[in-house]
Amino acid sequence: MPLPISFALPEFRQRLSLLLVLGASLTLSVVLITFRVVLTHQLTFVFLLWNLFLALIPFGLSTLLSLTAGRLKARVLLPVGAVWLLFFPNAPYILTDLFHLEPRQGVPYWFDLALILSCAWNGLMLAYASLTDMQALVVRRLGWSAGWAFATVALLLSSFGIYLGRYLRFNSWDIITNPLALFYDILSRILHPASYTGTWGVTLLYGVFLVLGYATVRLLGRRGEDPEGRTF
User: Fold this and answer.
1) Which of 12, 29, 49, 194 would suit a FRET pair with 143, their CA atoms being 20 to 30 Å apart?
2) Residue 129 burial class via C-beta count within 10 angstroms: exposed 0-12, middle 13-18, buried 19 and up
3) Quick one: DSSP state of residue 104?
4) Whole-angstrom Cα distance, residue 135 to residue 142?
5) d(Cα 52, Cα 119) in Å, to the nearest integer?
6) Among residues 198, 223, 56, 218, which one has the least CA distance to residue 136?
């Protein structure tokens, strides 16, 4: 029996290579955080491990969806996709952890910069890798234009989620544990946008940045392919 298209050998090799590279990059972040704890006996940036774990959730969900794409039904794809969208902002959110960068005793400033940049990079790459999988699912069902519309909206919504997390301190699970406060704050900003210019400034600016970054990464990924789809 032929293998499902999602398990084709070239795609399997690409996914394995991606997992290896992301694994190495995540390992670097963990090593830097661990080394800092050992060096300073302080837990200053240990919270980044939790942020990286949250960033892995949407990537894990999109990977599972992608590997089972040939057998997915809408009744499964839609709820799992909704959970993916709920956790997706946690990945690019790590970019804002650069706010924590400041000179501290006992550790060179450049080391902390490299540590936070490593985590921020991993969050961004996990977001883009995950979104690539989800966009492919949409393209498979609705076409190229719908796929890019989905990716753009997802990144804009993630920017709004970044604002909710960084400035209002909401988490993904607040939709269950604190839904009324979350709904009220979101609705207030939608109904009275002029009163919350910071909200929409963060959402639009970060959204444009994330969309342009995603488009750049996707185009760079295609540069090594010839017209027949073979990778150089």
Assistant:
1) 12
2) buried
3) B
4) 10
5) 7
6) 218
pTM (two decimals): 0.90
Q: How far is Cα 166 from Cα 186, in angstroms, rounded to an integer?
A: 14
How many whole angstroms from its chain centre is CA 211?
A: 12
DSSP string, 49-71: HHHHHHHHHHHHHHHHHHHTGGG
Query: Which residues 6+ apart lie within 8 Å of 200 measured at CB?
Result: 189, 193
158-184 burial: b if 16+ Cβ within 10 Å, else e: bbbbbbbbbeeebebebeeeeeeebee
C-alpha 69: how far from chain center: 20
Strand partners, 214: none
Please calculate the CA angle 57-214-75 and round it to the nearest 5 degrees.
45
**pLDDT tens digits, 47-68:** 999 999 999 999 999 998 888 8
DSSP code, position 46: T
pLDDT tens digits, 89-109: 999 999 999 999 999 999 999
Exposure on the CB side of residue 21, measured as CA atoms within 13 A: 11
H-helix or E-strand spanning residue 40: helix 9-40
Amino acid residing at 125 = M
Phi, psi torsion values for 24, nearest 5 degrees:
-65, -40
